[in-house]
Every structure is written in structure tokens, then in C-alpha cells.
Specification:
The complex is a heterodimer. By secondary structure, chain A is of the alpha+beta class. In chain A, the strands form eight sheets. A seven-stranded mixed β-sheet of chain A has the order 19-22-23-27-26-25-24. A five-stranded mixed β-sheet of chain A has the order 4-7-10-11-12. The longest helix of chain A is centred in the C-terminal third of the chain and has 19 residues, at 638-656. The radius of gyration of chain A is 39 Å and the shape is elongated. Chain B has helices at 2-18, 22-33, 38-44, 54-82, 104-118, 132-135, 176-181, 224-238, 292-297, 314-321, 335-338; strands at residues 122-123, 129-131, 167-169, 188-197, 209-219, 245-249, 255-264, 281-283, 287-290, 306-313. In chain B, α1 runs parallel beside α4 (54-82) and α5 crosses α10 (314-321). In chain B, the strands form two sheets. In chain B, strands 1, 4, 5, 6, 7, 8, 9 and 10 form an eight-stranded mixed β-sheet that branches. Chain B has a two-stranded antiparallel ribbon with strand order 2-3. Classes of the chains: A alpha+beta, B alpha+beta. Chains A and B meet through β2, α6, α7, α9 and α11 of A and α5, β1, α7, β4 and β5 of B.
Chain lengths: 662, 341
């Protein structure tokens, strides 16, 4: 909403400097976005909240200024001359569509350009002046915040107004010569033959004001907000009028708007009244009462504002407060339909008093200790992040919304992926089923500047078919270094979280799930904790790597974070052993394509006295394992160890055809 | 003898100071203080002195010996520090450990959680895929109300399984308010950080996907001044004591009175830039007293209980704290950006 200061000054005296005025308006809820200069004029650009349709008008803004300046606005009552004749108009209103219908006919008008001052004010509002009649209806709408529509009276066939709902599909041509197919439920006006108005949104071309128009019918109505909103959304067509109607027009102010337009038309188009004011409604739209308890006011605000100040604020808002004991009764003008509850009045007092005058306190009650629903502890997340950063990895955040193209590049079918029905762009159309795509793009982006790239992201994945969807936190780690480096990081991470019984299980060819179609099968392992799958580690296959423009396929690990939270444990202290451990190296000759992991597992299972098995060195088929034997209750004898060693060699030979290097 | 001692000292110190290598220094040491050294031999003459001279000369001898010995030590150090094989350049740059970088958003989030924990708040987490009810309906946004225009949502393709727009990406972390309130009875002090989504075109200060941190407190006597105090405390803790904050009234359907918090733009120090839309001030923390209709929707008695709610634009707070001028920097994985944090 734009408001030229000179126009506001027609209704209220302004003493504050413009910058101060702008801040005071913002502070009290009428946000000033900027102060524009046009010629010698200052124009306020305001952000109007949806609850205050009354502020979509110069008078409404003037009222707010009057409140701040603590003075009265100057809005004169209008007395129209008596009609010179009475032209017929038959109105059949549907009160569910128009809660109130008002109209007036003016005869013998002369269509011409608007006077300069009116012309200039419309320009200041960013409007295009057309002719005196159309300009006056626009002018009055912006002045009072109540839309009006002017018909060429002679084009209303049969001089008949029928208010009804569109059935849907009717064709309609607007004053600006655009054709629309009407949505069902739009409010329309039909004369005896044709649709002549798409109410609250746009007038019809057939009944619009022409240069030859001699008689006008001015109509001011209280349109149903919901029907206007739905029609305007269905047509993707908004007008200044529809914006006011969907927020709720001041039903009590309709005839004033009508009179104001008539006054200007008589003055600037030489018209004469040709009817009484038609005013149809089922109820009277008059001010209503609301009470405010001073006890409640203080309880919500946390300060006691002196009664005198409270009353002065309410008076400055034209709410006519009457105080009795602890209760103040106010009278709400019809243009303030947003004031419905006591809390609304509390806000009125607080905002005018000035938020920045309030003291700053903290809640004084007891701190609640009961664990709340949806409680989440960020401890594990932070542990993981801290570890990975210490291990040299950099944290990234990426969008959850990804493109179809990204899914295709990952070899993933988009059929199982959740789609946004109204995406902002095709770049952000699907909810990511994996974090891998984004991290591959991140590697690609960094390649020109860095040789080694180590990244991780902790973010959500989205799965399922709406309405049954699942969101899970997931950890993805990626490196341009070798497989063992990432694997070692992951092993140490899980170790630090005390997630025991971890296995890296090679993926079987037949078992390659299609959601992992971006991996190189022969270089991928499932990660299992206590035999439950918690993630994978693997190399991106050549095809996918080249889809992302990566010459060397990165290594990726993705772990389900909820599993981490489920399996991780606190540290349990173990005393340092009081008896010496026995350490020995075994150099074994291992047949090709034998998984070392399985050999280590096998060795560990042979005796509880084997505390650790590490791959110490390898060359060709010879792999040296360093075994740590430990008995926590006594010193081990070499004889005992010899027995275990022989068992190891025997089992490895029979199971894996592994032999000891002589 | 006294004269002899003083002359010996003088000669010795002179010689010592002229020696440039450890080997010659050692030889000189033996020449002077060795078994048959000049000084050692001179001391042997001490016993021939008359008795009354002994104490005086004895003292002088000790003093001279100490001085010579000290001169050897000093000269040795001098030789050591100037010899090339011992030379070490401490100005050579160190070898840094390879350590990664925690994303700035994580850093701010961790700090915020810490600050709120100190104030007695608990942390909660909930779904990003949300129903119309929790995101709008329960928060006093009636269906078809123009207030919804301020937060246009992205909705999920459901292939006709639900009415269109029923399942959406949450537009605000406030969607967690009623979810939590209906399961946990007051008093409550909660924060909910998380991602939110809007149907919005991207620019320097807006995104279709961004982070918020919702917070709310409900008790019997929580007041508007408590809200102002909380906002002031938290923003100064997280961004800096010297920031300028001011409050303004605004309207959100789920609060009454409604509050907007403006912070003087740190990207331009209030001069006006693209980030603060040239105003010098940036909206950072909308808030208000929880609307009684919201409490009622969660089956909490609004006569007994009252509270406040606020929302920190987390992404915006991060950019403000580090003087970044574009929200999109936070989802840019360029290590030249990330390695600054």
C-alpha cells in the first residue's frame, strides 16, 4: 500500500518528522517498508497485515497516524442533494453473497479526463488514470478502503441486477478486454440477458464506462470473503478490490463510500442524482461492545500501565472506553472487525503504549523437568560431528529438495521418490531419498581447487508413499582418498560411539538393492551392527561418477543415524590389566579372493583369550597378523598360547586353506 | 700473589672470549683448570703464604675461579648458539594437523541449544512433512484465509490419496507447537530447531528451504515482558552484546499480541544493503503471546495458562553473526567458504 503524505494530511495533521513517523507506525504494527520521493511528494510504502483490511486505505492509515499523534481525524460527513429524477433499477440480491448491497444512479454526466490533483494522486499510487468516473471510483476505494464499481446504466439490460453464483464455465470479458472462463461459485451480476460483472474482482466490458456514457450506476457491496478469495485464486487474478474483499470490507461504511463517489462525480462530471440510495441488508452493521479486564491486561503484559494512559490509548483508537471497576467496556467501530477478543484489545493497548518502553524480564516460574513429547538430545549428533571434524572431514548442508536429473544421474528410479506437487522449479522437485547425490555434486564443485576432498553431511532422507512417509536422519561421509582411509574413519567413529559387533559384509551380486545402484558392486560392503544393517560403504561406480563429471570415483559411506542412536553406548571403564599380555605375529599365506575380515573374525572366535587381532603387514599373498593374548586373572603361559596358536592354524587351514609362512 | 691472580684472570677471560670452537675451549680449560693447569698450579702456592694473608687470598682465589668457570659456560653457549649444525629456524611455518570444519550453522545451533538449556528449555524435533492441521489449522490460520498467503506451502503429490494441499512441507517450525502441547501438559519450555519450506523465489535473504528455531514457554504467569527479556537475552548471547534490537507490533494468527524483532543489519551496519532490503534493519525473531485459540486447539485451558512463542530465523541468524550477505552461502559446499569457520 502506498500513501502520499499530502493525501494523509487531508485527514490528519502530522507533526512528527517523516522518519520518526515511519518508525512509530512500524512499532505500532503498520510496517513502513520505505519512504519514496516523487516530485516534491513523500510517499510511505506500507506492509499491511491480513488482519487489517481497514489499513488498505488513506483514511485508515490517517487514523493510525492520528492515534500516534494523539489527535482526531478530520473526516467530514457528506450530505448529498436531493435526486432530480428517479430512474428505475430492480435489484435481486442474494444475502449469502452480498451481506449488504448499496447503489446509486447519477445522470447527465460528462466523461472527461480527471482534474489534475486527482490524476496526480492516482499516478502517485501507481495507477493509470482513465477518465473521471473510473478514476473517482478508484480514488474513493483507495481513500476509504471500500471498493466501488461503476456501470453504464443504459447497458444494464432491463435495468435489472441479479446477484448470483456462477455455475462454472461461463465466458466473461472484463473491462480490460480479457476473456475468462468463470469458476463455479464466483459471484456474478446478470442483467436481464448477460453477465455484466465478476463481482469483487473485475467489471464486465459490456457494462463498463465508455466515452459516450451519460448515466452511471455506482454500486458498493459487502462481498463474501471466501467466495471472492476462491474465485480469485481459481482465476489467478487479483485486484485491489479482491484484496480488500477477501480480508473483509467495512460493512458499516458502504454508504459513506457511495456518497463520497457521488459527491465527486457531481463535482467533476457535472452529474445529477437520479435515484435515492439503494441499501439492502438483513442486519444493521453497527459498532459492537467488548470488555477488557485491567487484571488480565496486567497479567498478560507483565506491567501495570496507568489507567489514565490505558483510557487515553483506547480513546485515541476511537474505541470510546468506559471504565467500571476493573473492567473497561469499549465500542468497536465497524471498520475494526479484527477486534474480536480481549487479547486483541490487550494488543491495542500494548502497541500504542510502545513495545520498546516495556522492561525486559525472564519467566520466573519453576523450570519444567518432565521430558517432553518429541524430545531430542543432540549429544550423539554433536559427538559424530566433532569426531569427523577432528578426523579431517568438512561439514556441509545441502537442500532436501533435488531435481529429477540428479536422481537420473544416480541411477535411481524416480518412481519411489516423494514428489512435490507444486515445486518452485524443476531443480527442486523431489525429496531426496539419499544424501549421496548432493555430496557428489559438492565434491565436483571443489575439484578445481582442492586435491583431497573429505566431506560429510548429517541430514534427513525421505521415503514412502504419501500419506505414509518416513523421514530419517542420515549420515553421509565422502572422500576422494582411498577406501581404507574412509573405512578406518568409520570404524573408529563407531568404536568411539561404543557400537560393538560391527561387521563389513561384502555385497552379494544378487543382493544389490536398486536404491544403491550408484555403487560399484565389487567394492561395496554393508555395515552391520549386531547383524542389523545400519549402512553401507562403497565406491561410486564409473558410470555414476562420470555422470557427475568425476574422473576418479569417490568413496562414500552412508549410515542411518537412528541406528547410531539406538546402538551407541556410554563408555564403561575397564581397569588396565594387571597381568602382561602376550603379543605375537603370525605370517600367513592366504589363497586369492579370501576375505581378510572373515579370517580375523574366525581367529577372534577361537578363544576368549585372544584380545585383539590386527592386520600388521601384507605383501602379496602373505599377510602378517599381530595377535594379542591376554588373561585378565593371571599370567599366560607360553604353553597355553601354543595350544591356541595351533588351533588357529588348524582351523584356518581347514576352512580357508591358509598356511603359516615358514 | 694477589697481583698474579688478577693478571691470570684477565688473561684467561681474554683468551676464552676469543675462542670460537668447543674443542679449543676444552683445551684451554685443561690448560687453566686441569690437573697441571696454570691456575691449579698457582693455587698450590697458596699453602706457602704467610698465615695472616691466607684468608684474604683464599677468598680471592675462589672468586677468580668462579669467574673463569662462568666465562667458560658463557662462551660455550655462545659457540653453541652460533654454530651452523645447531641452528634452527623457529620462524618456519608449522605443520598443521588435518582437521575439518564444522559448518557455521551447526556452530550457531549448538550455541543456541546451549543458551536455551541454561534458561531451562528442552529440545524437541519433529517431522518436516506435515499436515495442514498442525502447520496451519491448529495455529489459527483458517482454511482459505488470506493470512496463508504470507506462507505459501509446497505440498506433496499424493496421487489422489488425500485432498490436495493436505500434506505439505512445513512452512514453519511452529507446526510443532500443538503437536507437543497436546502430548505434554504445561508448564513447558521448548525449542524446536529444524528445516522449513516455502513456495518462494530465492534471493539473498529468502529461500524455499531454510532453518528456523521455534521456541515457546507456557506457564501460569508468563508475560509479554518475559518475552521481550528472553528475545533480548538470547540475541545478545548468540550474536553479540553490542547489537541493536527493537520491537514492533505485527500480526501472526497464532499470537496476540504479536511481536516482530528487528536487528540492525550487521551485513551493512545499518547503512542499507540488499540483505536488509535497504532498510538497515532485518527482521530476525517474530514472536508473540500464544493465541488462546492455539491453546484451545491443544486442549490447554487458556484461562489457567498463558505463554509466549518465538521463532528465530536460524539461517538468517547464522549469516548475521558471521557477516555473510547471502543465505545461499549456507548451502554452498565450497571449501573456500567452509574452511573459514
Amino acid at each position: 500500500m502506498l500513501a502520499p503524505l499530502s493525501w494523509l494530511k487531508d485527514f490528519v495533521k502530522i507533526t512528527l518528522p517523516t522518519d520518526d513517523l515511519a518508525w512509530r507506525l512500524t512499532e505500532s504494527g503498520l510496517g513502513v517498508e520505505s519512504i519514496k520521493k516523487m516530485g516534491g511528494e513523500e510517499i510511505l510504502e506500507l506492509e499491511i497485515t491480513p488482519n487489517r483490511p481497514d489499513l488498505l486505505s488513506i483514511v485508515g492509515i490517517a487514523r493510525e497516524i492520528a492515534t500516534i499523534e494523539n489527535r482526531k481525524i478530520n473526516l467530514k460527513s457528506i450530505i448529498l442533494p436531493k435526486p432530480v429524477n428517479h430512474l428505475p433499477l430492480k435489484v435481486v440480491n442474494d444475502f449469502t453473497l452480498f451481506a449488504r448491497y448499496t447503489a446509486l444512479i447519477i445522470d447527465n454526466i460528462k466523461i472527461k479526463p480527471s482534474p489534475k490533483w486527482l490524476h496526480d494522486r492516482l499516478i502517485q499510487l501507481g495507477l493509470r488514470p482513465i477518465n473521471n468516473i473510473v478514476d473517482i471510483t478508484n480514488y474513493v476505494m483507495f481513500e476509504l478502503g471500500i471498493p466501488l464499481h461503476a456501470f453504464d446504466y443504459e447497458e444494464i439490460k432491463g435495468h435489472e441486477i441479479n446477484v448470483l453464483k456462477a455455475k462454472g464455465g461461463e465466458s466473461f470479458t472484463s473491462v480490460d478486454e480479457l476473456r475468462y472462463k468463470l469458476p463455479a461459485g464466483a459471484i456474478i451480476i446478470k442483467d436481464s440477458q448477460r453477465i455484466i460483472d465478476l463481482c469483487g474482482i473485475k467489471g464486465g466490458q459490456n457494462s463498463g464506462i465508455k466515452n459516450s456514457t451519460k448515466t452511471v450506476m455506482i454500486q458498493v457491496t459487502a462481498d463474501d470473503p471466501l467466495l471472492i478469495r476462491r474465485a480469485s485464486q481459481a482465476l489467478s487474478l487479483r485486484s485491489d478490490a479482491s484484496t480488500i474483499f477477501e480480508r473483509g470490507v467495512d460493512k458499516g461504511g458502504l454508504t459513506y463510500s457511495l456518497k463520497r463517489a457521488a459527491q465527486l462525480i457531481i463535482e467533476h462530471a457535472e452529474g445529477q442524482l437520479a435515484s435515492d440510495i439503494i441499501d439492502l441488508s438483513k442486519h444493521q452493521f453497527i459498532p459492537w461492545k467488548l470488555t477488557l479486564s485491567l487484571v488480565k491486561l496486567e497479567k498478560v503484559l507483565g506491567i501495570r500501565i496507568p489507567l489514565k494512559t490505558v483510557l487515553s490509548i483506547l480513546t485515541s483508537l476511537s474505541l470510546n472506553p468506559i471504565c467500571k471497576g476493573n473492567l473497561i467496556t469499549v465500542t468497536i467501530p465497524t471498520y475494526r472487525e479484527d477486534l474480536k477478543k480481549e487479547e486483541d484489545l490487550i494488543e491495542e493497548v500494548a502497541r500504542v503504549y510502545g513495545y520498546n518502553k516495556f522492561p525486559l524480564t525472564l519467566p520466573s516460574g519453576q523450570i519444567p523437568v518432565k521430558k517432553v513429547a518429541y524430545a531430542k538430545d543432540f549429544r550423539e549428533e554433536n559427538k559424530v560431528r566433532q569426531f569427523l571434524v577432528a578426523a579431517g572431514y568438512n561439514e556441509i548442508y545441502t537442500y532436501s529438495l533435488v531435481s529429477k536429473n540428479l536422481l537420473i544421474k544416480l541411477n535411481l528410479p524416480d518412481s519411489d521418490v516423494i514428489r512435490i506437487a507444486n515445486p518452485v522449479s524443476i531443480e527442486y522437485e523431489y525429496l531426496r531419498p539419499t544424501l549421496v547425490g548432493n555430496i557428489l555434486q559438492a565434491i565436483k564443485q571443489n575439484l578445481p581447487y582442492f586435491t583431497d576432498i573429505d566431506l560429510f553431511e548429517l541430514g534427513r532422507l525421505y521415503k514412502g508413499i504419501p500419506p505414509n512417509t518416513k523421514e530419517g536422519l542420515s549420515l553421509v561421509i565422502a572422500t576422494t582418498k582411498q577406501f581404507e582411509k574412509l573405512k578406518g574413519t568409520v570404524e573408529e567413529l563407531l568404536n568411539r560411539l561404543h557400537i560393538n559387533h560391527i561387521r563389513f559384509s561384502p555385497l552379494k551380486e544378487s543382493a544389490m538393492p536398486k536404491e544403491l545402484a550408484f555403487l560399484l558392486l565389487t567394492k561395496t560392503a554393508n555395515i552391520l551392527a549386531r547383524d542389523k544393517e545400519i549402512g553401507f560403504i562403497g565406491e561410486i561406480n564409473r558410470t555414476v561418477a562420470s555422470n557427475f563429471g568425476l574422473e576418479n570415483p569417490p568413496i562414500i559411506c552412508q549410515i542411518d543415524f537412528e541406528s547410531i542412536q539406538y546402538f551407541c553406548r556410554e563408555t564403561q571403564f575397564v581397569p588396565i590389566p594387571s597381568f602382561p599380555a602376550l603379543i605375537e605375529d603370525l605370517a600367513l599365506i592366504i589363497p586369492p579372493k579370501t576375505y581378510v575380515g572373515q579370517i580375523i573374525e574366525e581367529i577372534k572366535n577361537i578363544s576368549p583369550l585372544i584380545q585383539n587381532v590386527a592386520l600388521f603387514d601384507y605383501y602379496g599373498n602373505t599377510k602378517t597378523f599381530r595377535l594379542t593374548y591376554q588373561n585378565t586373572t593371571r599370567t599366560l603361559s607360553t604353553q597355553e598360547v601354543k595350544v591356541i596358536r595351533e588351533k588357529i592354524l588348524y582351523i584356518l587351514k581347514s576352512k580357508f586353506r591358509v598356511t603359516l609362512k615358514q | 700473589m694477589e697481583q698474579e691472580l688478577i693478571e691470570l684472570k684477565k688473561r684467561a677471560l681474554d683468551k676464552i672470549s676469543k675462542i670460537a670452537d668447543n674443542k679449543s675451549l676444552k683445551e684451554l680449560f685443561l690448560d687453566l683448570l686441569g690437573k697441571n693447569g696454570e691456575f691449579t698450579l698457582l693455587i698450590k702456592k697458596l699453602k706457602n703464604l704467610p698465615k695472616d694473608q691466607k684468608p684474604k687470598i683464599g677468598q680471592l682465589t675462589n672468586k677468580v675461579k668462579q669467574e673463569i668457570e662462568q666465562a667458560f659456560i658463557d662462551q660455550e653457549n655462545k659457540i653453541d648458539s652460533s654454530s651452523s649444525d645447531q641452528w634452527f629456524d623457529v620462524t618456519t611455518p608449522g605443520i598443521p594437523p588435518v582437521v575439518g570444519h564444522l559448518h557455521p550453522q551447526t556452530q550457531v545451533l549448538v550455541d543456541l541449544i546451549e543458551i536455551f538449556k541454561e534458561l531451562g528449555y528442552q529440545v524437541a524435533d519433529g517431522p518436516e512433512i506435515e499436515t495442514d492441521w498442525y502447520n496451519f489449522g491448529s495455529l489459527n490460520f483458517p482454511k482459505d484465509h488470506p493470512a496463508r498467503d504470507t506462507q505459501q506451502s509446497l505440498h506433496l503429490e499424493t496421487h489422489g490419496k488425500t485432498s490436495p494441499g493436505e500434506i505439505i512441507m512445513r512452512t514453519q517450525t511452529s507446526a510443532m507447537q500443538v503437536r507437543i502441547m497436546e502430548k505434554t501438559s504445561p508448564p513447558l519450555r521448548i525449542i524446536v530447531p529444524g528445516k522449513t519450506y516455502r513456495y518462494e523465489q530465492v534471493d539473498a535473504s529468502h529461500g524455499f528451504e531454510f532453518w528456523q528455531l521455534e521456541g515457546f514457554a507456557i506457564d501460569r504467569n508468563i508475560t509479554l515482558t518475559d518475552l521481550f527479556g528472553t528475545i533480548n537475552y538470547v540475541l545478545k548471547k548468540i550474536i553479540g552484546e553490542n547489537i541493536n534490537i527493537r520491537f514492533a507490533c505485527t500480526n501472526f494468527p497464532f499470537v496476540e499480541p504479536g511481536v516482530d524483532t528487528y536487528m540492525q543489519c550487521l551485513a551493512c551496519s545499518g547503512r542499507g544493503c540488499s540483505f536488509c532490503k535497504k532498510s538497515g534493519w532485518s527482521e530476525i525473531m517474530p514472536a508473540g503471546m500464544i493465541h488462546p485459540n492455539v491453546l484451545t486447539a491443544a486442549r490447554i485451558d487458556p484461562v489457567k495458562w498463558q505463554g509466549f512463542a518465538f521463532c528465530i530465523g536460524l539461517s538468517r541468524a547464522v549469516t548475521m553473526r558471521f557477516g555473510m550477505d547471502d543465505l545461499r552461502l549456507l548451502v554452498n559446499p565450497d571449501l573456500r567458504i567452509l574452511s573459514q569457520f
